[in-house]
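It is worth pausing here to work through a concrete case rather than discussing structure prediction in the abstract. The textbook approach is simple: state the sequence, then state the predicted structure, then interpret. We follow exactly that order.
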Amino acid sequence: MAGIELISRAVIRREDKVLLAHKLGEVNTFLPGGHIEEGEYAEEALRRELREELGVESRILGFIGILEHKFADEDGRKHEEINLIFEAEIEDSRAESAEGHLEFKWIKPADFTDNVLLPSSLSMLLKKWLKDGKPFHYAQRDYYR
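Step two, the predicted structure:
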């Protein structure tokens, strides 16, 4: 295990849908965003990642929650990440990828499970947050020591 990864992610809404990303050729989806680099604040990292991924400027509206996730990849390597999740808005809701390996789509929360939103607990956490607006902290482990 290489250490704990800090990741800043965005919940971007348009009408009754949320923007999800996925790597081309893969089924799993995830919230837009990425790793926080040394010297960056979480919100700065998120704005940078959204600019890189979508080619648009964004505005952070508020903090949503923290999701700690421990998992093993397909090669059996263990990973630990802390996802800091924010609500954000983007200037252009077309959400076209600025990176060749990513694709974005607007999904209704009821369809999160069908789109294999990862980490798996995020589907339940976001549906709850969309209803009650309360920040969350949740820990998910997908492997056993």
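Step three, interpretation. The mean pLDDT is 92. The beta strands are 4-14, 17-23, 33-35, 58-72, 78-90, 102-107, 136-141.
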